[in-house]
Amino acid sequence: MAVDNLTKSAIMSQAYNDKLERMLGNDIVEKEKGTSLHDDRLVTRYITFICKDGSVMSLNYPYVVKCESNPERTKIVVTFTTEEVTLEGQFLESLHLGIICNTVKVIQCMDGRYNALSEANTVVNDIKIRNLAK
User: Fold this and answer.
1) Which residue has the higher pLDDT, 10 or 119?
2) Which of 10, 53, 89, 133 could cysteine-pair with 125, CB 3.0–4.6 Å?
């Protein structure tokens, strides 16, 4: 009897979650019967950092512990459970908000010599990734 109630509860909560996602405007894509995935165009799962040296690291948004910036908006520190990422550049306020809202997919480092040529106001000139386990 307890298993039936547990199964019924799981089915009801999945149906509730699907309905909530539709109400919020997130389309559900069904891959197989009983499996629902968020549409990749609407939900960003990872944030990718491309450093000056060409190295690339992708980290999962749910592991963000905090995101802070300095008053001048020239430095952002994003702390994940295992890594700390420091971004330095200019006009980083909109980038900070994008990280908080989980909408930023890729952050690429740009040489500071080209700051004046950038059409976008936000420019990241340095990315430092530090492993917190060490």
Assistant:
1) 119
2) 89
